[in-house]
Amino acid sequence: MTLTELYVVLAVGTGVVLVSVTAARLATRLGMPVLLAYLGVGLLLGQDGLGLPFDDAALAQALGLAALAVILVEGGLTTDVKHVRPVLAPATVLATLGVLVSVALTAVAAYLLLDIGWQTALLLGAIVSSTDAAAVFSVLRSVPLPKRLTSLVEAESGLNDAPTFILVLTFSATGLEAIEPLPLLAAMIFQLAAGGAIGLAVGAAGVWLLRRLTLPTSGLHPIAIVGCGVLAYAVAGLTQTSGFLAAYLAGLVLGNAGLPHRRATRSVAEGLGWIAQIGLFVMLGLLVTPSELASSVVPALVVGAALLLFARPASVLLSLAAFRVPLREQVFLSWAGLRGAVPIVLATIPVVAGSPGSDRVFNIVFLLVVVFTVIQAPALPWLARRLRLTPHDVGPDLQVELAPLDAMDADLIHVTVEPGSRLQGVYLPELRLPPPAATTLVVRGPDTFVPDEHTRLRVGDQLVVLTTPRVREATERRLRAVARGGRLAGWFGETGDPEPTSPTGRRRQCTSNA
What we know:
One of its GO terms (biological process) is potassium ion transport. By secondary structure, this protein is mainly alpha-helical. The chain has 2 domains: 27-387, Na+/H+ antiporter like fold (Up-down Bundle), CATH 1.20.1530.20; 411-492, 2-Layer Sandwich (Alpha-Beta Plaits), CATH 3.30.70.1450. The protein is 60% helix and 4% strand.
């Protein structure tokens, strides 16, 4: 690759990322998961759009599985285990028994309603039986729901990718006549148990190591933590066990171990997760040729309707029969089973394996994900209200954003009142900081408080002054002037502090309260 080609790749790649971010904002305003925006960007760039060729299913599968590993690690790192623990049992049953029920019923519907064989029907049922929490939460972000319900959906989505992946691999590589149910079930249990053990072990080893390893900079901690999660995925894959489950559980252990720099780790993990999602969905959009989708519209609608109205509700009811989950929550869970990246990535496995009818299966899955996301996602907030899961007198959950100061066009000035400084004894109004600068916080020994006009500075006080770039230098000059000249600095023309003026620009006179 020449330098010119490198520059072109970088320019196109960053342009795609920026367009995807902008499209995601539009999708959010319309109440749609952002995955549709990323898929749309890929379709726009593809062969029927701007003509960018991409038809390498094997490369798409490899990159897709790598992206899913990062997404699952990020999901584990950002999940609070205290919310998952109470719903772990029903989530596990949903992710195992529920998946088997959904696969069986979807396959029966596909076999009876479409002109396909049993193996293709089972393959199709396995591919579309995995839910996507990211799609659900991107829609429900502003809807207050019971924490138990959101935790159940989140835990199920993190756990059900593993069994569906095993089933898709089996149905893609093995003839139906050679598959024996009991050995297959035993192999699945072993792969899940061993993959889970590897994830827990790698996560615990990562915690032990990072607590004893002193890294030269805080920026290396997030990289090491995410790296441990990806390592669990790779080790499980090498041992022919469930890498998806290993990645999720390793992230869960690392994210809840109280390691240092947790906030930075979450931020880095979320950033990597978003990069993985953008790249994954844009790539999958590129892989699809829209002109070839017309013949798959009706099959996608038939299979999707059977999954949404029959297979998913039955799997939820059967899986949660032994648990005290209210019926209205089960109804919501049935509708909230959105499909996202995982089914489309899984659909590349039979294409790479050369399974009969795999191209048709991929097109059906792609259309099913897009169409039923458009149908289900906007209805979720309405359904939550109709089922009385959203209290009428409670507003949306507060979304707390850690905004960097540069995003707010603001600066922080940290000042310590040293012994001998004439800031000692000065009342806050006597600082006369240029507006809009303001002292927002004072740290005094073990105490931290928001100051007011009666606050008098003492030796050892630490002041946090919020200002804007426009008046930052003037604020610094004023603080230095008071530190040298005391509360009367500026009234007699001391250097560093302009004399105060009235709003009309004329000099005003006042007396100090000191």
